Amino acid sequence: EELLEQLKQAEHSRKALIARYAKAVSALPASAARGKEVFTQTCTACHLFRGAGNDVGPDITDVRIKTPEMLLSDILDPNNAVDPRFEAYALQLTDGRAVVGMIASETNDAIVVVGIGGREIIPRTSLQTSEPQGVSLMPLGLEASLTEQRMADLLAYIRSDVDAK
After folding, report:
1. 45 CB-near residues (< 8 Å, 6+ apart)
2. What is the pTM of this model?
3. What is the pLDDT of residues 2-45, one digit of tens each?
4. Distance in angstroms (rounded) separating the CA atoms of residues 60 and 56
5. Which of 33, 48, 131, 161 has the smallest C-beta neighbourhood within 10 Å, fewest atoms?
6. What is the biggest distance separating any 2 CA atoms in the chain, rounded to whole angstroms?
7. Residue 39 to residue 11: CA distance in whole angstroms
């Protein structure tokens, strides 16, 4: 019962955060050029967009069809709706190493795991355990580095029609 209450509070907290950002972002003058810098600093480790970044997370080329509120929810509450293709897995290997990432592909002989550190091929003989984490690989708490102004700029960039110069 206590855990359920904590989950409700966390969900309410995320929704309040998204509402706060939505109100602020809609009132701020935004710059796609500054947003490109924010994207480069914050998002390219996992997302590929307009030829820049890494192909770890979901393809975001269709973000212009999403409302700013939908994008804020995706960014600030990445665990709200986790696409199974992008769910984080914790893998324990027989050599004692732990690997966290998404399972990009599997064969009878190996698993390909993609994470912040890149792509790794893990032979099945090296795999001790593999546990889905029920969360997105995208980190929670990006608001720590994305002020309302930086978020407004980021949204302006990813929703713009052409690349900012």
Report:
1. 53, 54, 56, 116
2. 0.80
3. 766 665 666 678 889 999 999 999 999 999 999 999 999 999 98
4. 11
5. 161
6. 55
7. 26
Q: Alpha helix locations (H) across 43-88? A: 68-76
Cα(9)–Cα(16) distance, rounded to whole angstroms? Answer: 10
pLDDT of residue 164: 45
Q: Which residues of 72-108 are buried (b: 16+ CB within 10 A; e: fewer)?
A: bbbbbbbbeebeeebbbbebeeeeeeebebbbbeeee
User: From the CB of residue 161, how many other CB atoms can be counted at a distance below 10 Å?
Assistant: 6
Tokens of 114: 């993609």
DSSP conformation class of 142:
G
3-state secondary structure of 14: helix
Tally of CA atoms within 13 A in the half-sphere of 77 that contains its CB: 18
Beta bridge partners of 55: none
* Separation CA 95–CA 104 (nearest Å): 22
Interhelix angle 32-42/148-158, rounded to 10 degrees, is 100
Which residue type, as a one-letter code, is found at position 5?
E
Please say whether the beta carbons of 156 and 121 come within 8 A.
no
